[in-house]
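Design a sequence for this backbone.
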């Protein structure tokens, strides 16, 4: 899902436990690598008010493909309600190939507008449940929002409906915690909670701290990793 077109409750209780009970606020930078080689950064911010949660980022990727270096910037912007159900999503890509999309989750069916690299418009409708989680390609902080959704309940193994806007693909995922473990983050060893997300295409490992902040993400199938900068 990233770069590649990819049992037990928490032993230490997370803050919150009820939808909207704890405002979500987070800002940081993820350093991105592919097969051990640095390929970019994601500078993100998540902020909340009484009416909504906003999650935005600037993502810079530089990857080699067919012997050429591709340099792009992406700007995802997701707005959710206090229960972390999506309201709107917008995504723009700037670089050698530019494109954008907009998704309106407030209506049923959900409406999406895609503007392709050749300037054409593609409008599509999707029959999605209201509680769908948005996990777009190459957007790491969306996994932080999945962790926040997971923390609204008592833990255990959960199944969530998911949607990948760039691929126009609905689906589902399971998420569960496998326990706390020492984890290496930028040369330091931290005791973090390990969560595993399973989709039809990949297994995604997440390591989060006691404040449920995502510190590290790994997708072995695509050799992709993201680590929070400290």
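Sequence:
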């Amino acid at each position: 899902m990233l770069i590649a077109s990819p049992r037990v409750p928490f032993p230490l209780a997370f803050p919150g436990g009820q939808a909207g009970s704890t405002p979500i606020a987070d800002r940081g930078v993820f350093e991105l690598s592919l097969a051990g080689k640095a390929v970019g950064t994601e500078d993100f911010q998540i902020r909340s008010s009484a009416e909504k949660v906003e999650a935005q980022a600037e993502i810079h990727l530089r990857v080699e493909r067919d012997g050429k270096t591709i340099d792009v910037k992406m700007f995802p912007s997701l707005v959710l309600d206090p229960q972390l159900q999506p309201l709107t999503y917008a995504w723009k890509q700037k670089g050698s190939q530019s494109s954008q999309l907009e998704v309106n989750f407030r209506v049923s069916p959900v409406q999406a507008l895609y503007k392709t690299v050749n300037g054409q418009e593609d409008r599509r409708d999707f029959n999605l449940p209201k509680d769908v989680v948005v996990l777009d390609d190459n957007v790491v902080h969306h996994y932080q929002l999945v962790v926040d959704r997971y923390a609204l309940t008592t833990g255990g193994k959960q199944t969530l409906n998911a949607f990948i806007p760039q691929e126009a693909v609905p689906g589902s995922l399971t998420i569960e915690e496998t326990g706390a473990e020492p984890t290496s983050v930028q040369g330091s060893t931290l005791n973090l909670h390990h969560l595993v997300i399973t989709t039809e295409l990949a297994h995604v490992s997440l390591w989060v701290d006691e404040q449920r902040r995502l510190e590290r993400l790994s997708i072995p199938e695509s050799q992709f990793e993201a680590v929070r900068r400290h």
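Residues 26-228 form one domain.
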